[in-house]
Amino acid sequence: MTAVAGERLVDGYALVVFDLDGVIYLIDRPIPGAVEAVGRLHAEGKAVGYATNNASRRSSEVADLLTGMGVPARPEEVLTSAAASAELLRDRLPAGAPVLVVGAEALRAEISAVGLRPVSRADEEPAAVVQGYGPQVGWVDLAEASLAVRAGAPWYATNTDRTLPSDRGPLPGNGSLVAVLRTALNREPDVVVGKPEPALFATAARRAGSGRTLLVGDRLDTDIEGARRAGLDSLLVLTGVSDVPELLAAPESRRPTYVSFDLAGLFDSAAVVRVPGEPEFAGWSVDLTAGGLTLRGAGRPLDALAALCAVAWSASAGPQVRAASPEAEEALAALGLSV
């Protein structure tokens, strides 16, 4: 039994929204198959979107980055947390209202683009404060934001990612800068727009009209949880951060609708599975023992994963799995599980 009974997963959705890092590219190189998958979606006339917590680039800059990698993208297909924050503020504030911006020039540009007026000082009586990552953000910026929030301005954060990736390793992200204000103000932001909060994906889904939206991501704690909070179906691809052990231990709030090894699962029903399955599923059976889970049988590794999820999630069991057959050993190895 496959996830979609022989039909292509992508055919059930009007819009496919991709996370970027870990799904479309890793740092600065496209993930194998990503260029072909996006090109195929465009060729078939399927609506495509990209959603990223990055607030330091405008949508046009992200589109240029993707296109330069060979992944065709238009600015209107890209939704950043900066753009989503600006759209949210536009809907809540009168035209021309002053907004104190803490972050990169891209965030200021997005605020201007929706008809609001970016300002830098609390004494300009901002109607809101919006905070995003910017490499030049310093104490003066945070001090002005602190004063404005204490004076009553609502505080919006584009995202709360603690770190951001670099070729030198993780670096402080916007969440680390938000933590400075959180400490100074002894309170949380009024609104967090980026993943895993639902606003980013909800904004993307509205662009699909009445059709269904599928979110494709590689992280359970941001992409998949964000999709669930927004009421969207999700596909976890195992090309980035989250792996099978993390999936088996995932709380309900971080469980995807489907799993595939890569983006081939969008088009090939044999390369994707709906999770969870059943304890006895497509040639596999899983038993709960004192030592964890025991997998026996034969079949596709992804079907084995669906059966493992069924038992692990129902029993809150950890990712310790034992193989009871040579075929089970091969499946667990394919899933990256120790045997």
UniProtKB/TrEMBL annotation:
Keyword Repeat: no
One Gene Ontology MF term: phosphatase activity
Matches recorded under Pfam families: GNAT_like, Hydrolase_6, Hydrolase_like
Keyword Hydrolase: yes
Keyword tags: Hydrolase
Domain GCN5-related N-acetyltransferase-like residues, every copy: 283-337
Cellular component, GO, one term: cytoplasm
InterPro entries: GNAT-like, HAD-like_sf, HAD-SF_hydro_IA, HAD-SF_hydro_IIA, HAD_sf
Name of the protein: HAD family hydrolase
Organism from which the protein derives: Micromonospora globispora
